[in-house]
Amino acid sequence: MKNSLQTVLIRCLISISLVVISSSGLAQEPLRIAFIDPLSGSFASIGNNGLKQLQFAADYFYNSKGGILDGRRIEIVPLDNKQSPTETQLQFRRAVGEGIQIIFQGNSSAVANTLNSAIIRHNRRNPGQEVLQINYSAVDPVLTEENCSFWHFRFDAHVIMKLEVLTDYIAMNNDIKSVYIIGQDYSFGQAVSDNAIAMLKAKRPDIDIVGNEFHPIGQVKDFTPYVTKIVASGADAVITGNFGADMVSLARSIIDSGLKIPIYTFYAAYDGITATLGEDAKGLVYLVHNETSNPIPTEERKQFIRAFKAANPDNDVTQPRIINALRMVVEAIEDSGSTDPYDIALALEDRRHTTLSGEEVWMRGADHQIFQSLHISVHTNEGIEFDADNSGFGLYSEYHVPAEQTIRETSCRMSRPRR
Amino acid sequence: MLDVFLFATLNGLVTGLLLFMLASGLTLIFSMMGVLNFAHASFYMLGAYFAYSISSYLGFWIGLLLAPVIVGILGALVERYGLRHVHRHGHVAELVFTFGLAFLIEELVQFFWGRDTKNYQQPDILDFPLFTLFGQEFSAYRGFMIFISVLIFIGLYYLLTRSRIGIIIQAAITHPHTVASLGHNVPLIFMGVFGVGSALAGVAGVIAGPVLTTFPGMAVVLGSIVFVIVVIGGLGSLAGAFIASLLIGLLQSYAIASDLGMQDLLALLGVSFERSHPLNDLWTLTLPQIAPILPFLLLVLVLIFRPTGLLGKREE
Q1: For chain B: N or C, fewer Cβ within 10 A?
Q2: Could you tell me what percent of chain A has a pLDDT over 70?
Q3: Count of domains observed in chain A
Q4: Which regions in chain B score pLDDT beneath 50?
Q5: Considering only CB atoms, which chain A residues are within 8 Å of B117?
Q6: Does A19 fall in a domain?
Q7: ipTM, two decimals
Q8: DSSP designation for A240
Q9: Using omega within 30 degrees of 0 as the cis cutoff, is the peptide bond preceding B123 cis?
Q10: Contact B76, B195 (CB under 8 A)
Q11: Which residues in chain A are closer than 8 Å to B293, comparing Cβ atoms?
């Protein structure tokens, strides 16, 4: 009895001292960053995985080392948009209501476009309370072309840049005489198809496009009927922009049909996909992406991955660009000494940053598009130091294109706010 | 062309029979209890996840045996301790109950198994091509899927029309009070039917999981289509569900296999549009593009022209 009374007293003392400590820390309010992405619904696994990486990176690089700007912690505020543009509008309002001025978002270009226009409108009407859009993954070119904005920064290569690399790689393979293109029926799938056809025509006029198919996104239960057509077409390779369940089902159906042809993709790894593809897809599934996979070039990045895996054994560092984005934003904050989105944006423009991989990346000021080396990796279990889904399988980077070669002209005419 | 047609038929058959396994349970439950079970596809998902977990320890075949039993017991428990209480408050309450249950199961699945796609694979013993025609392989596992589905259809048909239990069930559908006064335990029959219906959905999940991938969205993807089948086939009609399942399976498969589109239709009418036409997306629509939504189109047509469904006996 006495014992428990003591514990209660001790607990009271601890909590009082905690309150004192935290109230004295109130002067140093945390820097709040919203993460608006799907945390429930069909695409929840991608969103949640991204959130874990952002939160971990914030703790690993800053919060555990005393925070930024003389002791401010970074607080990540997750807001679930279910990958719907409508929900995104609501969550954006909520973020604004809570006074958050930096928003991370990556999944779905439809969502990114909605957010882009919402932020442009909001910032025009509310000078002094602007919001910054950190796009770490939405790859629709318009975001840095026609619809480019001073308040939007993209930390991933857009679809045309990635396709240039992918079609170069396909063009080098003289065994490929015919290609089948299949994709989800929306802006991204259409962009992949249109650009792939145009690029292949220019690079390898002898390659036949034997199929160009669209299917409703997230609606197909069984891809076997599509694969039947692929087999009948006699294609030597498949190109697809599918992601999530549409990607796994498609790849599995192709492999199960006994077809042994390469599948060139954007998103066929991690979040259970690698484990499901397994042995059967070895050497057949290729991805184009930034930040080289195995072998990991630097000890620094290896340490980060190991630390992340220790904290999240069931997850992988699937999107190193989230970490690059966070580190570049924080660098911009530290350099400008301000958390005002206008100052951060100015400091981000033409910023050069050395990533964990030891590579220098460049955020172009003209359109806020990042440039960094792009890689093509293959799904395999050979030479894999860091696997995906704890499956022993992972990505091995085979082909590298330096950043300079990925640079493209932009049509962006950015309207810059005056201060 | 023949090879595409042949394989489209086989693919349609596999999908159709799989859909039937789900629809049979749903239509049976509806005809018995008048409950439209929105959580039916969730039991299908549970079947796949249970089988995945069991198979990683004890192998695929034990999973095939055990998972449906577990799902069936769960279904029976849901009926006994959930639906039966809600039943007193009428059909709307039941509908809302199963609707909520579907969400609950999806969240529970994500809670216990996570949100990632699960690596649930077909057994090695069936990992070979059953036959190869025109350079295309038809996997033994798909043959196995057809075999199991047909077996279940025959078994169910025999059970309902030839056995004593089937006769009591059929009587309980139309005259529950007479059956009760004859000394049969009608609530127990209801519980059994709900359990068996759920177990059938479980079987479908077990055998579909490796092919259609096991992920938390699998119930949603299949759920709506099963309702379409039950309505098209006629609510409460097992034979109707069978015909509708095959019809939809084949319809989708043929639509994907075809290369027809609006352009062919327009060419037939002698009309053509510029690429810059504002409705260009509409004029270039192809049949494969809209294949997965064709069943819903069929549903609308059936509801307009034959509201009772193909073999429905429901009188208004």
Answers
A1: C
A2: 94
A3: 1
A4: 315-316
A5: 45, 245, 248, 271-273, 275-276
A6: no
A7: 0.74
A8: -
A9: no
A10: yes
A11: 216, 219
